[in-house]
Amino acid sequence: MKEFMMIFVGADYADLGLSPEELQNRMGKWFAWGNKMEQAGILRGGNALNPQIRRIVGENRTVTDLSSAEVKEIIGGYYLVVANDFDAVEKIAQDFPDYDLGGTVEIREVTVFEDHK
Which of 29, 50, 68, 90 could covalently link to 12 via disulfide, CB atoms 3.0 to 4.6 Å apart? Predict the structure, then answer.
């Protein structure tokens, strides 16, 4: 089994103007998806990310603070899962709750480096 990260990209919920009821319903879908992966024994971790962004860029280490309103899409969170291959993770990603909001799941395999001591 390999480790994969599913990275969730889309608009910030606050910027979409979702009602409290819509937010609660959406969170229920996220919890159900996470529970499904936990019960299958494939979820290794994950978190939601705050929409505030601080970027440090270039040799001069230029610092810029951004909000979700200043960028088109943000990385809203991630799950770390174990699976045999990309196709298996793609199947897992079919239950991502935010496709209807234009959200995207980016799948990346985790690279494991050998420790040469």
Answer: 68
